[in-house]
Design goal:
With 271 residues, this protein is an alpha/beta fold. It has two domains: 103 residues, Rhodanese-like domain (Oxidized Rhodanese, domain 1); 139 residues, no CATH class. The protein has eleven helices and ten strands.
């Protein structure tokens, strides 16, 4: 069992990859509804009903609970979870401290950030390579860790969205798609108001690779090569391509946040 509390700065370093803590916003309904922003990947849950949602937490998962100020509400939820064997911590200072620190936030929009608690559903074209892998990564890491993704024939994306109650993306005629010289990944960032310098750097690389603009970022050509190789290895299994690609974007985001200034060379001395 880890410490009972975690700072905003320390939590921010853990976001953006598969092993990130699960974050639950346990603010009272009236407080939650007043705040239009949320911590990336956070889901609202009732702090007085932990027995009803504890089953969502996989065994061994790290959990962070946050309320407005990190006082009685989150502490009550964390103590209840810890009693039941969950490695739960409170966010020091709560959501207010996170926002005051200028850390990345997401704008509540539609199903994202709603208190209904349902997993979001998304649908796009089969045979994903770049944008249709990058977008699910962004959704899973910043918007909804429980999101579900569907791939269908291009002409049926909009119809399938209606049948599946899923949000269509990266096709013509929908909201989340290419706009001018930008791609669907850029549109997601804009629509959900995600402010993160490292993510902006990733977005430039994705845009360069997805729109054949290798001049935008030196890393774009590498992402294109990896994406095409990933697609070849996955064959017709779109979800295998997605699973493989998630690790690629985890690594790319980690590079953009923590190691972009690092260089590498063989250190051997000449004889």
């Amino acid at each position: 069992m880890g410490p009972f509390s975690i700072s905003s700065a320390d939590l921010s370093k853990l976001l953006g990859h598969a092993d990130s803590p699960l974050i639950f916003n346990v603010c009272k309904c009236e407080d939650y509804d007043l705040q239009p922003l949320m911590i990336p990947g956070a889901r609202w849950r009732d702090h007085q009903q932990t027995a009803g949602w504890i089953s969502e937490i996989p065994d061994g998962a790290k959990v962070v609970v946050a309320c407005v100020k990190g006082w009685k509400v989150s502490q009550a939820a964390a103590s209840e979870l810890r009693l039941r064997g969950v490695d739960a911590s409170i966010l020091e200072g709560g959501v207010n401290a996170w926002i005051a620190a200028g850390l990345p936030t997401v704008k509540k929009r539609g199903v994202i950030g709603s208190r209904e608690g349902l997993a979001s559903r998304w649908v796009t074209r089969v045979n994903p390579k770049i944008d249709r892998i990058a977008c699910p990564w962004l959704i899973s890491r910043f918007l909804d860790p429980a999101a579900q993704f569907f791939y269908v024939e291009p002409a049926q994306v909009i119809n399938a969205g209606l049948e599946l109650d899923a949000i269509p993306y990266d096709v013509e005629g929908v909201e989340i798609t290419h706009r001018g010289e930008t791609c669907s990944f850029d549109t997601l960032i804009e629509l959900y108001g995600i402010r993160d310098a490292a993510l902006d750097r990733v977005a430039l690389i994705v845009r360069g690779a997805d729109t054949a603009r290798m001049d935008l970022a030196p890393e774009a050509a590498g992402l294109l090569a990896i994406s095409l190789g990933n697609s070849h290895l996955a064959g017709a299994d779109d979800h295998e391509a997605l699973e493989r690609g998630m690790a690629v974007y985890d690594a790319l985001y980690a590079w953009a946040r923590f190691t972009a200034g690092e260089t590498h060379n063989w250190p051997a001395k000449k004889a």
